[in-house]
Write a structure and sequence with these properties.
Blueprint (H helix, E strand, L loop, with lengths): L20 E6 L5 H16 L2 E3 L11 E7 L2 E2 L3 H13 E7 H6 L1 H5 L13 E2 L1 H4 L4 E3 L6 H13 L2 H10 L7 H9 L9 H5 L5 E4 L2 E4 L9 H5 L1 H53 L8 H31 L8 E4 H12 L1 H6 L3 E5 L5 E4 L1 H18 L5 E8 L3 E9 L21 H4 L7 H11 L4 E6 L3 E9 L2 H7 L6
Parallel strand pairs: 1-2, 1-3, 3-5, 5-7, 11-13
Antiparallel strand pairs: 4-6, 8-9, 10-12, 13-14, 14-16, 15-16
Helix pairs in contact: 1-6, 7-11, 11-12, 13-15, 15-17
The structure holds iron/sulfur cluster (2 copies).
One iron/sulfur cluster binds next to helix 10.
């Protein structure tokens, strides 16, 4: 009996000694997969210690190294399911052999005109029922593919096994996918392997390119796995998925750390700023002009750090998917806009800017108060930072039937037209003279966009270079607001 080495699963295998115990079992359907295994037998016997095959009349007993399971598997057949589970427990590696076991599509989509008994949807792919290490679809599968899969397992050739491991993760594969992924992407080299391999004649080459008759496709996936470009695509998907998973993991950890650090710094920094302003504004005694100037420089730096921390906290919430939107009806001016202006009063005075609010005092919107305040804080502080010294800022709101359009306009150098689409990207810092000397994270507008979009709205920027810039966003109206305006809607 071959030595067990611990289940390799889809992580790849260690190099295996000869003497493998390999078996094939079939659970119904046609005999194509069993015959393919029989044809592979001479090569398999050269590679393995013991090979069990239905046509040899031998039943596998004890532990196995590799078990090939083929046939159409009905999830309502309890006896078969129990048998499959028992075999799975005894086998180091399980291979779903043939399209029925690998994808389950053939029986579900077969066309015969007969009443399906049990229902076609009861037929499932093997990976739905038990963990499967590798899949080898094909109707029938290629005998040479069976023997080379065993040879790759024996040599621990992870690179080659990647294709089969990736196939075990696919829940469907069909002629439609071949058309989408290979032909429409312009990857088809016109080799005709798909037409030759299709068991139902669903694919025909027309002018050197495959053409699919959808009604004949039984979703066996044979064309896809025989297509050289399709196989490449499956391997790349695995690489991309692994890279994507790793990147997401790194990004999640980074965002958690960022959120933690920003949260820990927030309160001590707020206390330090409060203490600093108490001294700077003369509440603890008079200061000399030099002392005041020095403290003003420190205050500017601390204000910047506080703004940075707020933005990193918001970014961390967005990226971790922890940004909850709790929409409630709000009085726009007293609850959001006026407090936002008050909080930036000092910056406004320092730049000698005037704010004009053209928002009806009683106007209401449906939004998350804290998040809407973040949007106004960002747009207003940008208007101050990039606006003209001594210039005007105008806050406006207008309503249409279904939404409220809110905007922040400022006099100033504006933004070049070709840079407008870049403004809302994460960490976007514009390479223009008016922005060169200003400190910023490039996060504020990205955060605004995320918040507005999570409210179901849109955000955009307009500008006339050298004169003004305007940022507008929409908030969809709540049902109650629409009913108030149009009582007919209530009926
Ligand atoms: S086109 Fe043919 S080979 Fe491809 S999935 Fe459909 S039936 Fe199978
Ligand atoms: S097997 Fe792939 S590359 Fe070859 S003709 Fe079909 S779609 Fe094109």
């Amino acid at each position: 009996m071959a030595e067990r080495e611990g289940r390799a699963g889809n992580q790849g295998t260690a190099t295996r000694a000869s003497g493998l115990r390999v078996a094939s079992v079939n659970f119904g359907g046609c005999e194509g997969c069993s015959l393919a295994f029989l044809k592979a037998l001479p090569k398999l016997q050269g590679l393995c210690g013991e090979v069990y095959c239905p046509y040899l009349g031998t039943e596998p007993e004890g532990d196995l190294d590799i078990l090939f399971i083929s046939g159409s598997i009905c999830r309502q057949d309890k006896e078969v399911i129990e048998r499959i589970k028992e075999l799975r427990d005894r086998a180091e590696l399980v291979v779903a052999l043939g399209s029925c076991a690998a994808l389950g599509g053939v029986m579900r989509f077969a066309r015969g005109g007969q009443e399906p008994k049990p229902e076609h949807s009861s037929y499932v792919a093997l990976p739905v029922l038990v963990p499967v290490d590798y899949s080898l679809p094909g109707c029938p599968p290629l005998p040479t593919a069976i023997s080379s899969l065993v040879a790759h397992i024996q040599k621990g050739n992870e690179r080659a096994l990647g294709l089969f491991a990736n196939l075990a993760k696919l829940s469907k594969l069909s002629g439609f996918d071949l058309m989408d992924d290979v032909v429409l992407y312009g990857l088809c080299i016109g080799c005709g392997a798909c037409e030759l391999s299709c068991p139902t004649g669903a694919i025909h080459m027309v002018d050197g390119k495959p053409d699919l008759s959808p009604e004949r496709c039984i979703r066996c996936g044979t064309c896809y796995v025989r297509c050289p470009m399709g196989r490449q695509n499956i391997v790349q998907r695995r690489v991309l998925r692994e890279l994507d998973e790793r990147l997401q993991e790194v990004s999640r950890s980074y965002m958690e750390l960022l959120g933690f650090v920003a949260h820990e710094l927030k309160n001590p920094l707020a206390s330090a700023i409060m203490g600093l302003y108490t001294v700077k504004d003369g509440y603890l005694g008079d200061l000399s002009p030099e002392q005041r100037r020095a403290l003003e420089a420190v205050a500017r730096s601390l204000d910047y750090f506080q703004d940075l921390i707020k933005k990193y906290l918001s970014l961390s919430r967005i990226e971790r998917g922890a940004l909850e939107v709790r929409k409630v009806p709000l009085a726009l001016r007293p609850e959001v806009v006026d407090p936002a202006i008050e909080a930036l009063r000092r910056e406004l005075e320092e730049k000698g800017m005037a704010v004009e609010v053209r928002i009806p005092p009683g106007m209401r919107v449906v939004a998350d108060r804290d998040l809407l305040r973040i949007v106004y804080d960002n747009l207003l502080s940008n208007a101050i930072k990039y606006g003209k010294e001594g210039g005007h800022i105008v806050l406006e709101a207008r309503e249409s039937d279904d939404e409220v359009v809110l905007s922040v306009w400022n006099e100033g150098p504006g933004i070049p037209r070709d840079k407008l689409p870049l403004l809302f990207q994460k960490f976007s810092r514009l390479d223009v003279p008016s922005h060169a000397k200003k400190r910023g994270t490039g996060l504020g507008l990205f955060i605004c966009k995320e918040i507005v979009e999570r409210h179901g709205g849109r955000i955009w920027a307009e500008s006339e270079e050298g004169k003004w810039a305007k940022f507008s966003f929409t908030l969809p109206k709540g049902k109650e607001e629409r009913d108030e305006e149009d009582p007919d809607r209530r009926r």
